[in-house]
Design goal:
Blueprint: E1 7-10, H1 11-14, E2 15-19, E3 31-38, E4 46-48, E5 53-55, H2 57-61, E6 67-68, E7 73-76, E8 87-90, E9 94-96, E10 100-105, H3 111-120, H4 122-126, H5 139-143, E11 146-149, H6 152-190, E12 205-208, E13 213-215, E14 228-231, E15 235-238, H7 239-243, E16 256-259, E17 263-266, E18 277-280, E19 286-289, E20 294-298, H8 306-314, H9 319-325, H10 340-343, E21 347-350, H11 353-391, H12 402-408
Parallel strand pairs: 3-9, 4-8
Antiparallel strand pairs: 1-11, 2-10, 3-5, 6-9, 7-8, 7-10, 12-21, 13-20, 14-15, 16-19, 17-18, 17-20
Helix pairs in contact: 3-6, 6-11, 8-11
Length: about 400
């Protein structure tokens, strides 16, 4: 139920919905001008103030591309991954390609309010796409989307409140990005020995990996069913927690059994891990991994710091070594061809155990600050989402000033 001053309308009743086009790529005179040209990849719940490509006046005049005014709402109609259904607002005059829907609201409808509303309905709208191998939205589909329409002044105040939250989130995200950048720089410098603490002067040494670690070959004799996978963000995590299901084979007897603080190397290369990822088991007491993983643990007779090495591996300081032993071109189904013997003879460049502990301590402090800021960003997003669900449905009303109330009346 909406408040009595509100009404429900379709997007097509309160806006003109159209799309743009792409000038002929074979005509260089159409490209490299000064007219911003938006593609779907630039629509990311943002205000667009510049574009990666620009077209000329001739390109605009001789194609289906159209120039849209500042304040136009854009929605990605096509796109892989999460692109389809994302929304942006033009902070400049710009043309778009044919995959971008341009939503030009009628008078007395506020673009900022509808930007917030359409953003809040992202998951629902993207599911309206046409059936097919890749679902797409269309102008016709968007015209039928139902939207709540408060009086114009109330639209403005709702948008102002939510924009304030966006600004707080953006500030927190900048602080987080800066913290992450500083942590990466810190790790790169102190884990490589380029930057050292004054109290340590001993020369770093080169040792084989098997001088510090021993291979794990224990099979799953305990019938453990906690099948683990490697996630860039979460490390070794249960497939059930990550995928909401297990994608492993029914017979797990051939899997390798890991205990907490054991390491696993996934030879599959992925984004951010060109030489594969090495992660420790931290979230569970035990779990099992595919026999394709190379697993190892720290030797009990060696004085070494666990946290130092988990940071060492995460920073990719073994990548160059692994690249040297992976046979060029010998990749099978995304797996690097790395032999067990070669892997355990990789060279580690490490300091004494006391310096390892000092380095790990510094990185742990930086990581804790990063985690605190990440939690703050997540909390702000959740609080804004909860507020949106109230304000954008009229369950919670904003207060208008006396003058705004009079104008609205």
């Amino acid at each position: 139920m909406l408040p009595k001053e509100w009404h429900r309308s379709t997007l097509g009743e309160i806006a003109r919905i159209t799309s743009g086009g792409t000038p002929d790529r074979s005509k260089p005179e159409y490209w490299g001008g000064d007219i911003p040209w938006v593609t779907t990849g630039e629509i990311q719940f943002n205000t667009i103030t510049d574009t990666g490509e620009k077209i000329t006046a001739a390109g605009l005049q001789n194609s289906s591309a159209k120039l849209f005014p500042l304040g136009t709402l854009l929605m990605a109609m096509y796109g892989q991954g999460k692109t389809r259904g994302q929304v942006a607002k033009l902070g400049i005059e710009a043309a778009t390609n044919q995959a971008c829907a341009a939503i030009l609201l009628n008078d007395n409808n506020d673009p900022d309010y509808f930007f917030q509303y359409l953003s809040s309905q992202y998951e629902e709208i993207r599911e309206l796409g046409n059936a097919g191998t890749q679902k797409n939205l269309s102008g016709g589909i968007l015209k039928g989307v139902l939207v709540p329409v408060p009086p114009y002044r109330e639209q403005r105040r709702i948008a102002q409140v939510l924009t304030t939250w966006d600004q707080a989130i953006a500030t927190a995200e900048r602080l987080l990005a800066n913290s992450q950048r500083c942590t990466r720089d810190l790790m790169a410098s102190i884990l490589s020995g380029r930057r050292r603490f004054r109290e340590f002067t001993d020369k770093w040494r080169y040792v084989d990996l098997d001088a510090v670690f021993v291979r794990i070959t224990r099979k799953n004799s305990t019938q453990n069913t906690n099948v683990l996978t490697i996630s860039a963000e979460h490390g070794l995590i249960s497939q059930r927690d990550y995928f909401n299901k297990s994608v492993a084979s029914a017979n797990l007897s051939g899997y390798t059994l890991l205990h907490r603080y054991d390491f696993a190397y996934n030879k599959s290369y992925s984004a951010g891990y060109p030489m594969g990822a090495i992660k420790p088991l931290l979230s569970y007491d035990a779990g099992v991994v595919s026999s394709l993983y190379l697993c190892f643990r720290m030797r009990s007779d060696v004085d070494a710091d666990f946290d130092f090495f988990r940071h060492y591996f995460e920073a990719g300081l073994l990548d160059q070594e692994i690249e040297g032993i992976a046979q060029e071109g010998a990749r099978n189904h995304g797996l690097l061809n790395v032999s067990v013997t070669d892997f355990f003879k990789l060279q580690l460049h490490i300091p004494t155990a006391p310096e390892q502990r000092r380095i790990a301590e510094a990185i742990n402090v930086a990581r804790a600050d990063e985690a605190r800021l990440k939690a703050q960003v997540q909390a702000l997003r959740q609080e804004k989402a909860a507020l949106m669900s109230q304000l954008l449905t009229g369950k919670r009303r904003v207060k208008l000033t006396v003058s705004e109330t009079e104008v609205q009346a």
